[in-house]
# Entry
Amino acid sequence: MTFLDLEDSVAPLEKEAARAKVVDAIKSLAWDDRVMCVRVNAWDTKWTYGDVIAVVEGSGERLDEIMLPKVTSAFEIKALDLLLTQVEANCGLPAGHIGIEAQIETTEGLINVEEICAASPRLETIVFGPADFAASMEMPILTGGVQIPEYPGDHFHYVFSKILMAGRANGLQVIDGPFLKIRELDSLRDYCARTRTLGYDGKWALHPDQVTVVNEVYSPTQEQFDKACAILDAYRQATEEDRQGAVMFGDEMIDEASRKMATKFIARGERAGLSRSR
Ligand code: GLV
Ligand code: MG
# Structure
């Protein structure tokens, strides 16, 4: 997925002019088959509706999603959903064509994340925004989304878990936001491991150098992929031929829950282009 930004990376005096640039980029550059998204300005500004109309009408079918930042309540998602329905009808797009990505990056958004994740069938992805969230919490830090050495633990652990649970309970993709120290690739790799381990699907990349690291960390290794395939084979043999629900796989017991875990690994590995070793 690639998103083009109209929000915090665009200076206020350039906000309106940026819309046409984004539309032009979507229409004229070769984007292969990736999901295309535009981040519009939040509902507490004066630009949201203008952004949505200009970008959706201008981009046509190639635009897949709108990202809404600083979502504080389910109403904001519903408002965007209603607006999108009208814009789609006006410009001949199929109803429901545009999906929504919602950024949770304020204290209110985190408190309401469960309702937010259930607010619209257009929702595809929930994204944590560590920089705005740190500001919203008034954390005494100047760089969002990096480890704080003085804190004996992970200062965002609760936040990561809460967003992940709300997202998964509603069948959404769950993504961690930016790592601002773009030259520190080893620290990025280390940081990615936190949300990867919890179960996140991925993390933003702000720079091409970050893409390689992020793709690597959030994809299963070949070894994990092969093990998952072998677990499925063993489980199928056990249940379908030997009529057993729990069997030994090497030195561990596997059962239906193991099948579910293995299936997730395989889906994720296939998305990353892996196939079983011979
Ligand atoms: C991203 O938008 C962030 O605030 O971290
Ligand atoms: Mg933000």
About this structure: The pocket of glyoxylic acid (ligand 1) is lined by residues 69, 103, 105, 129-132, 144-145, 177-178 (CB under 6 Å).
